[in-house]
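INTERNAL TRANSFER SHEET
From: sequence group
To: structure group
Subject: Pentatricopeptide repeat-containing protein

Please process the attached sequence and return the structure record in the designated field. Keep the field labels unchanged so the import script can parse them.
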Amino acid sequence: MEFLLRSMRSDRIKPNCVRLCSLVRAYRKARKVEKILGVLHFIENADVMLDIIFFNCLVDAYGKMGCFVEMKGVLARDDGGKRL
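Return from structure group:
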C-alpha cells in the first residue's frame, strides 16, 4: 500500500479523498494503527484537501480498532475538517 503512495508521488499524481479513505480502510482491516498515522503524515506533506467522508472513515477506523483517544482527537477538531 505504501508502494501506491510512493508511485503516485513519483508520477506527480495527487491522491484524492477516495483513495486515502481506501487506504485507511485497508489499514483498519489489517489493524495497523501506525500505518494510518503514516497516511495522515502523508496528507500533511501533500497539501490534500479533505472532506467529511474522510474524517468519518478515520473515526470509524479508530473506533473499530479501539483507539478511542485518537478517535476523540478527530472528533474534537474545530476547523471544519479542511486540514489535518
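Handover comment: The chain has five helices and no strands. The chain has a mean pLDDT of 85.
Transfer complete.
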